[in-house]
Amino acid sequence: MNLERATAAAAGTATATAAKGYGSAESEYIRRHHRHDPSEQQCSSVLIKHIKAPVHLVWSLVRRFDQPQKYKPFISRCVARGNLEIGSLREIDVKSGLPATTSTERLELLDDEAHLLSMRIVGGDHRLKNYSSIVSLHPEILDGRPGTLVIESFVVDVPDGNTKDETCYFIEALIKCNLKSLADVSERLAVQDRTEPINRV
Q1: pLDDT in tens, 118-165
Q2: Most Cβ neighbours (<10 Å): which of 15, 64, 173, 196?
């Protein structure tokens, strides 16, 4: 919807988060960690996923900037340069079927305590110019067990010939697929861990 896209463009503000129907905790996380300042020629949005697996397990997948293919289904190959430090680069090969073949991405932030990762696309064969994203993980209780709230936000230039709605819709669809895959992989690992229920207070 146009209204949702308009509010997403101002993600991080109380008005935007309230308009998207987020709870108070989610709104606070977005305000604190997912502030973007999109220009008139950019679009921005925030997506949320609840995963039935503990934060440390989900983070063990998300933090691997050098191995995004562990849960991102559209990546066929990744070659990383550097030691998972700020400024490290990765070269990604994209699977056929998408309007892209390669992407060069730089690690902007990796915070193991706060469970924050940020990256920026700096090159490659695609149409996502000035794309940057932030992923944050937050502990929660789901069905009496440790769970994880994952929030991913992005900002990107709107390509010539496309509208903000079209651009946001396309990127949101990709991120939703990635987050669903992240949930599937994490929840399989959580079952193997046999996490014990937490006693409710």
Answers
A1: 999 999 999 889 999 999 999 999 999 999 999 999 999 999 999 999
A2: 64
Tokens in use for 163? Answer: 């509208």
Distance CA 178, CA 169 (A): 14
Is 199 inside any structural domain? Answer: no
From the list 124, 148, 123, the residue with the least C-alpha distance to 138 is 148
Domain of residue 103, CATH code: 3.30.530.20
Please state whether beta strands 75-81 and 132-142 pair in parallel, antiparallel, or not at all (unpaired): unpaired
Structure tokens given for 109: 């932030």
Q: Is residue 201 part of a domain?
A: no
CB–CB of 173/165 below 8 Å?
A: no
Q: Which range of residues forms the domain containing residue 66?
A: 2-193
